[in-house]
Design brief:
D-amino Acid Aminotransferase, Chain A, domain 1, Rossmann fold, eight-stranded mixed sheet, four-stranded parallel sheet, alpha/beta, Dna Ligase, domain 1, 15 helices, 394 residues
Amino acid sequence: MDNKAVILGNNYYIGLSTIRCLGIHGIHTVAMDYSEEERYGATSKYCRERILVPHYKKDTDGFIDALIEYAKMQDDKPVLIPCHDSYLEAIDTRMDEIKQYYYIPQTEQGLYTTAMNKEKLHALAEQHGVHVPETVRVHEEDFEEKVNTIIKFPCLVKPVDSPSFVAKFRRKLFKVHSMEELQEKVDLAHEAGLEVIVQRIIPGFDDHMHTFDAYLNQDSKVTHWTTCQKLRQYPINFGASVYTVQRHFPELYDIGAKFLEGIKWKGFAEIEFKKDAETGKFYLIEINARITNFNHMLYKIGMNVPYITYMEMIGKPLAPKAITKNTNTAFWYAYEDLLAIKGYIQTKQLKLSRIIPTFFRPKAYAIWDWKDPKPGFSFMSIYMKKILKRLIRK
């Protein structure tokens, strides 16, 4: 296979997992980043080429120009796989131009951005009959009355543009308990130039979070899929997955496949749902439009998303496949899971007696791999340096 695979975002384990999932099939992988700093994914033995380009946000046009110039130098059209939301946003600004030089599953300019925009996504979900959490916009009439009667406290202040919010505040949202605190967080977001919405908290512990993970072909039909259940997140309650188990929930296919096909999605998508502990209804929380955090677990159970993507893009699609049995396999990001466990215990949400058995389940690790150990050592080195800097400051 002569088409190279260009992977964006290798300073995180999603990029690392993508490199490994393609490299094991002998595909020429290219780690393309804006800096060498913390780029542990590019240290994988499966990474064949390392390229530096301008920063996707500080110089978006320079980044896109460098991306295109690289493709022009290749004999065969490369496959482009972004592994971070911010790269998707940058690509979406010039999608029509980029797809002339790269194979990329999503070809409709603006759909990536729509999926990551909470307000637009929820409007789209409602059009297709999918439940979303009750939401009040900050500038609506009778804002305070609606918050008190419809949303109620505690509630969530969530960004419309998640990547920009996370980059600014290092968190996905604010949880507030009063009108005063709500106004304070809204003002904080506005001072940063960020738009936010206010949402009801769907009742249920973190294990009520579920995902529908699917690949859709160029006809916008689901060809590969499975479902998963989150058990622990970090930060706790409203964070990213650090311990997730593959389990079969057929009702998520009924909701998720219909929705993704209805909006003409192409390529991989992960819909996050929360099951209401009181009503049993599934509410759409968000869509991850790039490779999921627990990609390595999907690979381990037989759903190699990067390879599925690559093969369809070069005109050799793999046979459809669904993982509809409970494999009992878990994704584990040990570093942040230990921090999450500490938080759950301190807040009395979990007991050790419930946590300890999860360590004995078959696991797919976020970073460590005995067959490819260098990224693991590189990651440990990065965090040891951070710890030493903190100690020196003290």
